[in-house]
Amino acid sequence: MSNADLVLEGGGVRGLGTAGAVIRLLEEGYTFQRVAGTSVGAVAAAFVAAGMDAEELRTVMEELELRLIPDRERLGRRLVPGVPMLSEGVSLLRRHGAYQGAWIHNWIKTVLATKKVTTFADLRREDSGDSEGLTEDQKYKLVVTATDVTRGRLLRLPWDYHLYGLKPEDQLVADAVRMSLSIPFYFQPRTLTHGDTGQDSVIVDGGVLSNFPVEIFDRTDGAKSRWRTIGVRILPDLPAGMAQLFSLPALKLFPLLQLLQQVVTTAVVGNDQSHLDRPGVRDRTITVDLPALGVTDFGLNLTQRQEAVGRGWAAADAYVRRCPTDPE
């Protein structure tokens, strides 16, 4: 087996490609010491950090019911029937997101429980060879990114829970992943409450500020890295951008929100693109080509799902042929 760190980009349904790539890397014998992810990348990252092997990850992704992910909020005792987009429109106005995100949150929690992972305490790691100066809050197998729009800052969880008077080991992994999944205007944002002051912060998708933090595990003490970092990308470079990949019909009811969504989604791609153009960054990145697959295409049939996973598998297969695992 070969050690590595793994960083997974966000991108909604295109995360099926991520899963395919990770499955191939696990089949190749990689052991991932630390895993980071944003949005849907945080989901796969959590499962890998929890110890899933290739077959377990493949099974979980095959059983995922995509159509249930866009879960409308109930208006009164039941959904308003026969009025297209009304539920989503009301949720946008009331909750700042078209869908609750409750179904995917519960699904993540249930899957992690099968690997006996509940809080970040279950993902604690101790390694004397880590960078000098690494804090106690950073000694975990998993990092997910989110964006605090109240404070205007990127969150790296569990690293940054101390900023809110919270102990990382007490926080639920599924809650952190759900925060990272809060695609602006699509899923309702989450609230993070300061443990001492009681102040609430509104949290949205980590991709707003950093959708592909491939440098997150790079050493800061000047020492040579003990193993490689592998990144998996699933969004195209600008100018194609995410603005052409995101689709939420309910936004047509609110032209201002539609403009804001275009600004946010373009930023998701653009913020990381300049970093990708630095020397050596793309060399450690697997890019999965998923033409015509939208971030919110939750109605994919079985054939389309298998094709997306297969494209991810093939992209990672090309990587392992080009970059063999490190010798023991």
Description:
The active site is at residues 39, 205. InterPro entries: Acyl_Trfase/lysoPLipase, Lipid_Hydrolase, PNPLA_dom. The protein is 33% helix and 16% strand. The protein has 8 helices and 10 strands. The strands form 2 sheets. Strands 1, 2, 4, 5, 7, 8, 9 and 10 form an 8-stranded mixed β-sheet that branches. A two-stranded parallel ribbon has the order 3-6. Helix 1 runs antiparallel to helix 3, helix 2 packs antiparallel against helix 6 (173-180) and helix 5 runs antiparallel to helix 6 (173-180). The longest helix has 22 residues, at 255-276. 42% of the residues are buried. The mean pLDDT is 87.
Question: Which tags fit this structure?
Answer:
328 residues; alpha/beta; eight-stranded mixed beta sheet; two-stranded parallel ribbon; 10 strands; Acyl_Trfase/lysoPLipase
The gist of it:
With 328 residues, the chain is α/β, with parallel strands linked by helices. 33% of the residues lie in helices and 16% in strands.
